[in-house]
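hi! just following up on the protien thing from before. the input was this:
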Amino acid sequence: MDFRKRIKEVCQIKGITQKDLAEKLGITDISLNKTLRGEYPQLQSLEKIANALNVDITELFDAPSKSGTIGIIRHNGEAYGINSIEDIRQLLTKIEKGE
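and the predicted 3d structure came back as:
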């Protein structure tokens, strides 16, 4: 996936516009668009964008895996794939019960 499209997608997921992102970066939306239109934006710019979106920089290049896993929680040496809020609730219940 093109990183420009991915940044737009992450903005949509986070519920912010590119104008909001530009404001978080302390630049105008025109400057942000120029940065994104460049063939290869500087790593420093991409790091700032990732930080403003509160994501790992790698998420600006790749969509989440097709498995649907949003994240992984490790507890007592086991890894649990988290795909939804319900998964978190079930894991929390399991932890509270000491399982």
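The longest helix spans residues 3-14.
Residues 66-99 form one domain.
cheers
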